[in-house]
Amino acid sequence: MIIEAEDSSHHIAVRLLHVEAFPSPAEADLVDQLRRDGDASISLVAIAEGRVVGHVMFSRMKAAFRALGLAPVAVAVDKRMQGVAAALIEEGIKRAKADGCEGIFVLGDPDYYRRFGFSAGAAAAFESPFAGPHLMLLPLGDMSVPSNAGQIEYAPAFSTLG
């Protein structure tokens, strides 16, 4: 498997992947909108057997420090439980850190994202419509962020999700 930056030649395959992976096209539409709005910061694909088998996107967020939001992640049905999502997330985290990002937020399953260092406790003091036990933060650098509280906002495209 090869992980590389998404480019326009991957767009159709990425859209189909998200449509297949989720119960509605909402996540596929989100990816398209984040691209159109210029809010996609890191977008990676996993290629295996000559096809796109995974995708992850990190988008810009408003916060008191340089932050990204991790979402969405999709993996082809026949490639799930094989480490594709984990490899994409780890590479995205590595690239975010190298680019000077100070923290990454994710809204998801704490049991899954804890393995990457995300913590609901680290995000607990941040104000967001998504606040709660599933909002997590991964501080980058020295495992801290410049501000431990305040308002955070995902890119505007996220407001279309239910």
Automatic annotation (TrEMBL):
Residues 1-141 form the N-acetyltransferase domain. Signal peptide: none annotated. This is N-acetyltransferase. InterPro entries: Acyl_CoA_acyltransferase, GNAT_dom. GO terms for molecular function: acyltransferase activity, transferring groups other than amino-acyl groups. It holds the Pfam family Acetyltransf_1. CDD domains: NAT_SF. Gene3D superfamilies: 3.40.630.30.
